[in-house]
Amino acid sequence: MEKKNNALYIVQGVIRSFFLTLGLLVIYSIITYFTKPNPQIDSIYFVVITALSVMYGAIYSVKHIKSRGWLVGLLLAILYIVIIYLISVVNGRGFYISTYGMLRIALALFVGTLSGMLGINM
């Protein structure tokens, strides 16, 4: 029974991460509507959005599970990134991972693991 609840908390963390991502993307789209978009700032903002979303989801999940923080954070980051890339494939971008994409994946895994450890100690 406990493992089922743990999986539920991880899924809830991923869903919360996506809602945070959606909210931050809406804010950014409003900002870029009134200003000229800059590709360099866009890429930095998307990396920051990914990091913040994974951090929030990992801390939320670990606060409820209360054990194996690094593993929960890592699993959440993997699920988040896989779903993001599946959405990209569905939207017609194809399954191409650039060096920027690899950096984003590595950062998400690193942030997820550290956030899981942080969430245990909070």
From TrEMBL:
It comes from Clostridium homopropionicum DSM 5847. The keyword Membrane applies. Keywords: Membrane, Transmembrane, Transmembrane helix. This is TIGR04086 family membrane protein. The chain crosses the membrane at residues 7-31, 43-62, 69-90, 102-120. Pfam families: DUF3792. InterPro entries: DUF3792_TM.
